[in-house]
Amino acid sequence: MSLRSMTGFAQITGPVNAVLAFTLALKSVNHRFLDLHFRMPPDTDSLEIRLRRVLKEKLARGHIEVTLSLEYGGTNGVALNRQLVGSYVQAFRAAADEFGIAGEPDLNVVLRMPGAMESAAERSVEELEAAVLARVEDALVKLNQMREEEGHGIGVELRERMNQLVKASSGVEGHRNAILRSYAERLQARMQEMLGNQVDKERVLQEAAVLVDRSDIQEEIVRLNTHVKHFLALLEQGGEVGKKLDFLLQEMNREANTLLSKTSGLAGEALRITEMGLLMKSEIEKSREQVQNLE
After folding, report:
1. Which strand (E) or helix (H) includes residue 116?
2. In DSSP terms, which residues pair with 24 in a beta bridge?
3. Residue 295 and residue 5: Cα distance in Å, rounded?
4. Which of 167, 236, 270, 294 is the most exposed, having the fewest neighbouring CB atoms within 10 Å of its CB?
5. Helix, strand, or coil here: 159?
6. Contact, 188 vs 274, CB < 8 A?
């Protein structure tokens, strides 16, 4: 499946009958869950329920605004109820014949009778529902096409950022041995300064080795690279992976923070690790900004 952004727009139009047409617009932006908002004409509750059901089947996440507008043509959306008016006229003439009264019905009076004139909306609620539901799939195809195009662009950027992250991780690992030696020498010198000749030198070295081992960043590097591989695999998988990618980036950020905390305060080559660690955090944060918009 393709990656999908949660940002997109689609609009379709279609006829309902000879005097009525509709426009259906779908606008999508990012959201933690699927959040549907409808702007519908009056007396279309049934249509809204059915549209809601269709959208839930086709979309996973995003704030979706659904706008349905109606356009009237011909007689401005008002039409003659021929059957009803014809019945009035026939009844008038039948009564005139029966009672021998001369005269013709007054059209002005007839058109003021209840139901003689009706709006297109009153006559076509069922037609409207059928017409919109027949085209909603087209709107969803257009919306998802736009979301997939943007999702593709986000995927390209995320892969590049993961590549930069791996490079920074490799750079950190290249300085690891030098940093361990620096840490051990610094720790040894400090302990000897504080303890003088009161403690066996071998004992001091053993304690220093234990502390240096605890300060080793190899574990963070391994976990970081594992998260990157998982991240890239999810990008290839596509579909609804936004939340999983966001979680992995949080874990990457945690490893970068730990790496920086273990190497803080060291001079020399340790400064390079600090620079690379900050670069990692920058790439992770920029990736999170993009992932927030993936479905």
Report:
1. none
2. 12, 68
3. 6
4. 236
5. helix
6. no
Q: Comparing C-alpha atoms, which of 260, 254, 249 is closest to residue 283?
A: 249
Question: What DSSP string runs through 96-155?
Answer: HHHHT------HHHHHTSTTSEEEHHHH-HHHHHHHHHHHHHHHHHHHHHHHHHHHHHHH
Query: Scanning the structure block, which residue is given the tokens 């574990």?
Result: 219
Nearest to 138 by CA among 239, 44, 24, 49: 24
- Joined together, the tokens standing for residue 66 give 């659904």
* CA-based torsion, 289, 287, 227, 150: positive or negative: positive
Judging by beta carbons within 10 Å of its beta carbon (0-12, 13-18, 19+), is residue 294 exposed, middle or buried? Answer: buried
Residue written as token pair 């303890």: 195
Which residue type occupies 265? G
Q: And the tokens for 77?
A: 């959306």
CB contact at 8 A, 262 and 270: no
The helices-and-strands tally (H runs, E runs) of the chain is 10, 6
Tokens of 128: 């409207």
Rounded to a whole number of angstroms, the CA Rg of the chain reads 36
Q: With contact defined as beta carbons under 8 Å apart, do 152 and 49 qualify? A: no
This prediction has a pTM of: 0.69
Cα atoms in the Cβ-side hemisphere of radius 13 Å centred on 47: 25
For residue 119, what are the CA distances in angstroms to 15, 17, 180? 16, 12, 83
Q: Going residue by residue through the chain (295 aa), what tens digit of pLDDT does each one get?
A: 789 999 999 999 999 887 788 999 999 999 989 999 999 988 889 999 999 999 999 898 999 999 999 887 655 556 666 777 788 888 888 887 877 787 777 777 776 777 666 655 555 678 889 999 999 999 999 999 999 999 999 999 999 999 999 998 888 777 666 666 666 666 666 666 666 655 555 655 565 555 555 566 778 888 999 999 999 999 999 888 999 999 999 999 999 998 888 776 655 666 777 788 888 999 999 999 999 999 9
User: 58 to each of 23, 34, 63, 122, 249, how far by Cα in Å?
Assistant: 20, 11, 14, 31, 27
The secondary structure element, H or E, covering residue 77 is none
